[in-house]
Design brief:
With about 220 residues, the protein is α/β, with parallel strands linked by helices. It has a single domain, classed as 3-Layer(aba) Sandwich (Rossmann fold), CATH 3.40.50. Helix content is about 35%, strand content about 30%. It is elongated, with a radius of gyration of 28 Å.
């Protein structure tokens, strides 16, 4: 076999391998086949006119530590039935629930019309009160042996302390439950959001009531 014939035969072999590789690449994907996960938003969203309302608040309240039940701090939706607990399959929050809770709480205070204004440690103002919350439950509950619709439950305990004296001013607990309209995931999410909104609105009202005692009289 001549050198030229050998080169032609070798080039033909390389071309054949290239065609086979292209054909294989068209049939095989490296991406795994999986059912897409539906994402849902948790909590109150900001309102365009809320900033103007919040400017009237006269008592700065520092958002202290927010303790979160570890089972619900992440991005999964927890359900309970008696002693059994499980997460809803193929459904997630858009972010960890603990982060969206804080964002929703800030929006709830922005919507408020009372004396309290929620601030963070980064704000260049001093606070009169310190707010600490413990989110003990944020879940959907099913009754054992019952066909009734599940109930969304949110439980929060709160503490308000005097920022100067470092003494407890007020303590309260909030238990908000909202029945879901059906067992569909969207209905469960709507019920959780309604229960959370109810509880956070009550936290704001309680904080406003406490803050009223720290308002300096005019004149």
């Amino acid at each position: 076999m001549t050198r030229a014939a050998h080169l032609i035969r070798r080039m033909a072999s390389i071309a054949a391998l290239g065609v086979a590789a292209i054909s294989l690449a068209g049939c095989v994907t490296l991406l795994p086949k999986a059912k897409p996960v539906q994402l849902y938003h948790l909590g109150l969203e900001a309102q365009a006119d809320a900033q103007a309302t919040a400017k009237g608040a006269r008592v700065q309240v520092l958002q202290g530590a927010i303790q979160f039940n570890r089972d619900v701090a992440g991005d999964r939706l927890l359900t309970r039935q008696g002693d059994q607990a499980a997460y809803v399959a193929d459904a997630r929050w858009t972010m960890p629930a603990s982060l969206m809770f804080e964002e929703s709480l800030a929006n709830a205070f922005m919507r408020g019309t009372g004396d309290a204004r929620l601030i963070s440690s980064k704000d260049p103002v001093s606070a009169k009160l310190i707010l600490r919350l413990d989110v003990r439950a944020l879940e959907v509950r099913y009754s054992e042996g019952s066909r009734r619709s599940p109930v969304a439950a949110v439980m929060i305990s709160g503490l308000l302390a005097d920022a100067d004296k470092r003494t407890i001013v007020s303590q309260s607990a909030f238990d908000c439950q909202v029945p879901a309209k059906s067992n569909r995931v969207q209905s469960l999410v709507s019920a959780i959001n309604e229960a959370l909104s109810d509880c956070q609105t009550k936290v704001v009202a309680w904080t406003d009531q406490t803050a009223a005692g720290f308002v300096k009289p005019k004149g």
